[in-house]
Amino acid sequence: MKFEDVYEITDFIGKGAFGQVSKCVNLQTREVFAVKEIDFSGSEEDKKKAQNEAKICGLLDHPSIVHLEDVFFTPRRMLLVLEYLPGGDLFDGVVTRTQFSEKDACACVRQVLKALRYLTRKGIIHRDLKPENLLLSERPSDHRPPIIKLTDFGIAKQLKGNGSPLYLAPETILEEGLTYAVDIWACGVILYLLLVGYPPFWNEQTEFLLLSILQSNYTFPSPYWDTVSEPAKDLIRKMLVVDPRDRITAVEALKHEWVSGSDDIPGLRLNRQSTLVRLTAFNARRKLRGVVLGLIARKR
Fold first, then answer.
1. Residue 157 is assigned to a ligand binding site
2. Domains 3-83 and 88-272 share a fold
3. I need a labelling partner for 105 at 20 to 30 A (CA). Which of 5, 169, 193, 298 fits?
4. Each residue of 116-160: pLDDT tens digit?
């Protein structure tokens, strides 16, 4: 059976690193989905990544991971029919809010950690955890935490370095043996960003950025971190550990006092307005960079 026999494409959503994404509807049930079209006609490597994503997604069933509904193959393309998530990505959702606190950041990170715990149990490393791959199931609201879904398993590795430089773990840069700890490192970078609106490691020159990551050269400078709780800083310290053997695991992180739900932590509900301002600026630069890289890729 062909894709066109079951679904109809209705709208274009966007173009990612490995393919175009569109909105589609099931012709029989009228249920709405997203379809990711991956063209692998020009590269055997792209074909392997596409097949890997289908294989990995087919193994997964978790509320914090995007659901794979169907897969179709043609001689030149693979089409993944996925759960439709209209809320945009994590940072897009956060910056549209007028209220955002540590408690809100915690609600986001807790969902990511639950997804990572599940992947660990399945023997899968995501390897490209970043805000673009954390999608929201609905439009964001100041009154309820977003429902986050981890997506894009194109370079995931099932156990028997590619990725985005800003979120790379030291061992990925050094091309050493990868473990589940690489995803915890990326989660730590995302948490840092959610709390203050700028990343722990930053340099316009990639080689200096990577060196900073290798040295775990980050701080909690005043005044940006003055109102962030000590438990939040403690969790970041445990996530951004250079030696992956000493890095906190997803299971351990979910038991950490900042994640496990204590409302007694000072400042947990404080509205972090300055964080939203900085994160909005960071998000705009991220989007611009994505557009530029997309144009470059299309010219190749």
1. no
2. no
3. 169
4. 999 999 999 998 899 999 999 887 666 677 799 999 886 565 544
Q: How far apart are CA 53 and CA 51, in angstroms?
A: 5
CATH 1.10.510.10 correct for 3-83: no
| Homologous superfamily of the 88-272 domain (CATH) | Transferase(Phosphotransferase) domain 1 (1.10.510.10)
CA proximity to 106, closest of 294, 272, 226, 296: 272
For 206-261, the pLDDT digits (tens) are: 899 999 999 999 999 999 999 999 999 999 999 999 999 999 999 999 999 999 97
Q: Is residue 234 annotated as a catalytic residue, yes or no? A: no
The DSSP result for 43-81, as a single string, is -HHHHHHHHHHHHHHHH---TTBPPEEEEEE-SSEEEEE
Q: For residue range 170-204, what is the model confidence (pLDDT) as tens digits? A: 999 998 888 999 999 999 999 999 999 999 999 88
| For the chain, domain boundaries | 3-83, 88-272
Q: How far apart are CA 124 and CA 169, in angstroms?
A: 16
Tokens of 198: 């700028």
